Structure formats: C-alpha cells, structure tokens
Amino acid sequence: MRIVFPVIAAFWLTQIAVPQSSIAQAGSGLLYEISRKDLAKPSYVFGTIHAICPADMIPVEGLTMYVDRSDQMLMEIDMDDPVEMGSMAKVLMIPDGKTIKDFLTPEQFQKVDEMTKNLLGYSAENLKTIKPTLLSVMIMSSPKAIGCTPSAYDVSLMQMAGAKKKPIIGLETVAFQMKVLDSKPFAVQAKELYEMSLDPQKYIRDFQALTSVYKTQDAEKLFARSTSSPAGDKEFQTRLLDERNNAWIPKIEAAIKGNATFIAVGAAHLGGDVGLIKLLRAKGYILKPIRLEPQAGGDN
User: Fold this and answer.
1) Are strands 31-35 and 286-290 parallel, antiparallel or unpaired?
2) Is residue 23 part of a domain?
3) pLDDT at residue 261 above 60?
C-alpha cells in the first residue's frame, strides 16, 4: 500500500520531542533537523501520511515548536492557494468522455460496484467517471474501510502555518501531480481497481499495517513497506518517488538557504537510496532525527 500524495488524498501534537539521549539512539525518524555550516538557522523535514485515524496520529502539537522556529512552510503543493485547489476538480475525471466501464468487462464492473456500495455507500455508476486510482484511494480511506473519520497532517500543518502567518510554498502543482498519476494507463488503473474489489479486506489490512509502521517513526521501514509492490510497478514507483525527490532537492536547497523552512511531504519520500534524507546528506547537510511523543496510551 503506497502512501499517496496530496491531490490523491483529497479524496481518499500537546507533547514535545523526547530527550536528546533518545534521539541519539534513533537511526531513523519522521521528523529531521536539517543543518549545515552555511545555514544561519536549521530547517526541518517531516514525513506525513495523508489519511490516518486521529487516535493513531502523532499529536500535531508536538510539531508546533518546529513550525514556530521556521520562517515558512514547504509542502508538496500549496494547499493554501485557491487557484491550485480549484484546479483539482478539472483533473479528477477520466478524459474524452470515457468511464471506468470502458476498461472493465460488465462482470468486473459489477465487482467494483459491490465494493463501492459496501465501503462508500454509493453505486459505482455514480463514480464511474473518476480516475480509477483516485477512486481506489477514496475507497481505502473511507470511514468504513479505515474504521474512523480520517484526519490529514497536511491540512493540520497548513492551518498551523496560516494561524502563525507563515508563508506556504508548493514544491509542485496539482497539474504536475496528476500528470504523474496519469502516466499509468487507465486500463492498468482500472485493472488494479478490479483486483482490489476481489478482496477489499486484504487492502484494508495492508493499509492498517502501513499505519502501524508509520507509528514507529522509522522512515526506512516505512519506505520499505510502502514500496513493496509487484515488479511490474517499479517504473511507476520511480516516477512517483525517485524522479520527484530528485526534482525537489534544488527547490528545497533554495528554500532553506535564506529561510528556516518546515518541509512537509509524504513520508515515503524520506527513506530509500533516492529518498530525501540520503539525497540531502549527499549534499553535505546534517540530518538529525527527532522522535516525537505518541498519543497518550499509544503503542508506538
């Protein structure tokens, strides 16, 4: 189960960091301080998950001090830009008047219909113009699938930045993100949606397992879990993660050069050999993991 980026997730902390001794023992994290001798002030990068039950969240209040120390916030897209948010509606639908039914047999569409009725409460007939991958995320992040009304770190962080008058900058646009998504043919997207309909509970269990790994605050384990996809999907994974990570590095460097910046991106972008952590370290930056306190009574 992949951690999705914000445009897809549009469908789909009161405690502070632990003592330095605990930080030193942590080889990986979700929150990192970024420093280098030529930076006047450190910046921070935090890995989000775009749909999670409130009870499973690391309290966002734990991030307050790091947002306070920052001059601006850098996100995958500028969620505070009404033009960007308004553009979402234009790119959600399958183009050229086609629907999911054009890529599935009647029997396959019937299975998808059963799944949407069970988990979304709507017939797939009412949703057939939505791009299949977006529909699959809607289904997997629905209250019935996830077991709660999900929250999103992206929204909470955007609201925190707005309340503190911190400028928000986007690393890319909604249009670009959708171009990445659309690089997977709609026929393949529809096939994957149908395969999900054969055993929705398996995908729900996968998402629950991903959430459990996220709660450990280990970016490397999370990367391994979120990219455990079939070999045939590796090319898409490269476009979704590796190529975007490389494109972000110059933008991140430009942002942190003159201003302390709080960077919030999907957590799958942090780990791995082409993850932001290794890419920034290769540029000479020091990235120090900072563990955050879990929810009271939490198990991470």
Assistant:
1) antiparallel
2) yes
3) yes
Could you give the number of structural domains in the chain?
1
Tokens for 206?
Answer: 């996968």
With CA atoms as reference, report the closest residue to 48 among 143, 150, 179: 150
In a domain? residue 39? yes
Structural domain range at position 64: 6-269+281-290
- 298 within a domain of the structure (yes/no): no
Q: Is 142 domain-assigned?
A: yes
Note the pLDDT tens digit of each residue in 31-53.
Answer: 999 999 999 999 999 999 878 89
Arithmetic mean of pLDDT, 234-261: 92
DSSP secondary structure, 86-142, as one string = HTGGGSSBPSTT--GGGSS-HHHHHHHHHHHHHHTSS-GGGTTTB-HHHHHHHHHTS
Give the pLDDT confidence score for residue 228 in this predicted structure: 74
Written as six digits, the tokens of 199 are 């055993």
Q: How far is CA 50 from the centre of its chain?
A: 5
Closest CA to 154 of 253, 262, 249, 257: 262
* pLDDT for the residue 271: 94
